[in-house]
Amino acid sequence: MEWAGLIEAALPVMLKGALYTLLFAVVAMVLGLLLGFVVALLRVGKVPVLSQLVAFYVSAMRGTPLLVQIFVIYYGLPGIGIELEPVPAGVLALTLNVAAYLSESLRGGIAGVERGQWDAGLSLGLSWWQTMRYIVAPQALRLSVPSLSNSLISLIKDTSLVSVITVTELMLATKEVIAQTFQPLPLYLGAAALYWMMSASFERLQKRVERKLELAHQR
Amino acid sequence: MSAMISINNVSKWYGDFQVLTDCTTGVKKGEVVVVCGPSGSGKSTLIKCVNALEPFQKGEIIVDGIAVGDPKTDLPKLRSRVGMVFQHFELFPHLSITENLAIAQVKVLGRSQDEAREKGLKLLDRVGLKAHAHKFPGQLSGGQQQRVAIARALAMDPIAMLFDEPTSALDPEMINEVLDVMTELAQEGMTMMCVTHEMGFARRVAHRVIFMDKGAIVEDCDKDAFFGDINARSERARQFLSKILQH
């Protein structure tokens, strides 16, 4: 097949797949950060029962393969009457997985803020929650950015695993084109390039966020 | 003069280790009390018990009629009325000086941003730092940061101020600018409890001096008595004073 013909056949399908990949990554990222924050707060605040429960959740998510988690949610849950479409099942699995890692990064960031900052906030009459929100969390976020970014870049690549539950993201889209064109090498390399581009633009975003946080935190 | 802070038989343990033993003392309204003693003697721990940054297991502390150890006490409200200045300043590094001064006024006292800013600027002016209002803490020297920290505490209109070794982390040439602000405060009648090794400050400004050793209050007497007849002091206090006053 001609190069031009190959690109013409592959590009629209693969770009559409890449769009799904991006969608999965961004949605799981936003939901994962929210959930990760809640989990980190429950653990740092040592909320009885709940903090043990979420510690168990974090351990389970970090201790089992994402692929198994996806299978449990998509093929396993229907056994107890919970049937999810492939897209929500994929988003759910990715969110639960990434939130566990993000919560650990955030917890590390919160622990990295010195006790004196807590004392100062509390001594002014701020409540525990106000001190967390206005004093500790902004500094913790800054400390966590490099480690958060690691998890989020992994997330972009991990989205390829949801191809196993028939979601036509970049990986499955590529496979489909290969099934028609029998050109695995250039097409898989093309898919790799697209993943790389997405990760690289995310890295640039990370650098900008870091610089911005740095400006507002001159020591 | 009535007791603004009264500390009665306070004991505290970290696990099996006792850090405070039956501490009893008080600070009257308008009084300046200096707490000194060797490191590890429990003086910082005691002062942090006063605004409940450190819990204690036995005894009671009453601040302006409110029991600090009572679980029903509204601690944020109590703390908002007692200013505290720390050894390492503890300004909020992600907030500008103006925001450092305003945040608790707005979030705790419910003042408007404008009101809080104006009050903050007035206090910054008072500690001689009005020109630095827009900067971040990291752009100031240690002495300047500590003066901002004092202004931040004063912005809450406290009924008393606690100082926890406010000059220990400062370069020698910056100590006086902080002590000057504290001296001025004392002369205006602020009730102050100061953990410090600055015996010159104690001599000039304090009404009373407390000497602590191994978690207990060993001496608690008028400044004149403390610095007067050294032979009337306890063995431990004599040793401490002879070391610290030689210089």
Write the layout of secondary structure elements.
The complex is a heterodimer of chains A (219) and B (247).
Chain A: H1 3-44, H2 50-63, H3 66-76, H4 86-112, H5 115-123, H6 128-158, H7 170-181, H8 184-215
Chain B: E1 3-14, E2 17-28, E3 32-36, H1 43-50, E4 58-63, E5 66-67, H2 75-80, E6 82-85, H3 97-107, H4 113-126, H5 142-154, E7 160-164, H6 172-187, E8 192-195, H7 199-205, E9 208-213, E10 216-222, H8 223-227, H9 235-245
Parallel strand pairs in B: 3-8, 3-9, 6-7, 7-8
Antiparallel strand pairs in B: 1-2, 1-4, 4-5, 9-10
Can you offer a commentary on this structure?
The complex is a heterodimer of chains A (219) and B (247). By secondary structure, chain A is an all-alpha fold. Helix content of chain A is 81%, strand content 0%. Chain A has a single domain, classed as MetI-like fold. Chain B has one domain: P-loop containing nucleotide triphosphate hydrolases (Rossmann fold), CATH 3.40.50.300. In chain B, the strands form two sheets. Chain B has a six-stranded mixed β-sheet, with helices on both faces. The mean pLDDT of chain B is 94. At the A-B interface, helix 5 and helix 6 of A face helix 2, strand 6 and helix 3 of B.
